[in-house]
Amino acid sequence: MSTSAATSNTDNHSEVNEENFKLKPITPEGIFSFACHPGVSCFNKCCHEIDVILTPVDILKMKTALNIRSDEFLKKYTTLQTLKDTGIPLVKLLMSENSNGACIFLDGSKGCSIYQNRPQVCRSYPLGLGTLDPRHEKLQTEGQSPEARFMIQEDMCKGHLEPKTWTLKKWMEDQGTIAMEKGNKPWMEIVAKLKAMKINDEQNHEISLFIMASYDLDTFRQFVFESSFLERFEVDINTIKSIHSEQESLLKFGMEWLLFALFNEGTIRPKVKNE
Predict the structure, then answer these.
(1) 272 lies in a domain?
(2) From residue 45, how far is each of 101, 155, 158, 173, 178 by CA, in Å?
């Protein structure tokens, strides 16, 4: 499987640098060399002029670390863009206008100011994840995984010359991406379904629901608890308690809600009215 039209690549690189990197497939057993630290000559260069697309788990972790509401985080640190040819709204991290296009969270030579809560794509680098586009599923061979890992080799990155070696599993464990990918999986599946159906400009209601449940959890919580939602839908008492107090549970519930609202699927169902 290549990263041509048949795949949807979740790596985030600026169009300016697009011709200056190569994607090399890597197997779970594959070994690669890489290290990133202040002693590497290119340190922090990869934090400039990039398109960092944030996932729901990214936003949850970052807004919690900054101790602000999700709607405030979105307004202050991000901008919305539409995934090409799909109509799907994505959240992109802002770059600074005064520091050569540096990430808004880059603290000079010190590096990332939110390193412990940095986005998944930053953690994963130099590895990328490609997923088979549902619109080209006929190109998938029998038994082939819909996902593939790639090594991103950019001309400017000297981390590949470092002697430290990793396996794919060890790198993911070290960078803390396994749990994040698991948390984002329901959302990725919804995005894949939306790609297949395409959203048009007239579906403003569906777009608003997707943005709220995916990216704006605090507003979604208000939607659930301060509207007639719980009067209209079957939600058991344990779920109500967990989504009220646990943000991760609320995000998971939001994905179930999107399955119902967008595709009439999932476990959430309207209450049956008594005759």
Answers:
(1) no
(2) 10, 11, 10, 24, 26
